[in-house]
Design goal:
Layout (H helix, E strand, L loop, with lengths): L9 H22 L5 E3 L2 E3 L1 H22 L13
Antiparallel strand pairs: 1-2
Helix pairs in contact: 1-2
């Protein structure tokens, strides 16, 4: 299988790497979900972390598309 990051510029590669890392973290969290809890007055909200990662993943997808720059679709013939 070809590397999906092949042909990307440096900015795109950096975004792609971050996207892969966040996607892996999300996958791990869904495999082994943890409850929210509080220890010594410090609260840990795994749901908030999960939601934050999902939001960041969406933002990175948009950034990856924008980093590719404008593109042009060329249509030949009579599109109907």
């Amino acid at each position: 299988m070809a590397d999906a990051s092949a042909g990307l510029n440096q900015e795109q590669q950096n975004i792609y790497t971050a996207l892969i890392n966040i996607s892996a973290a999300i996958a791990q969290m869904t495999l082994k979900p943890k409850p929210n809890y509080s220890i010594d007055g410090v609260s840990y909200s795994w749901q908030s972390l999960f939601d934050s990662l999902i939001t960041k993943q969406k933002e990175l997808r948009v950034q990856l598309q924008e980093a590719g720059g404008p593109f042009e679709v060329i249509v030949q013939g009579n599109p109907r």
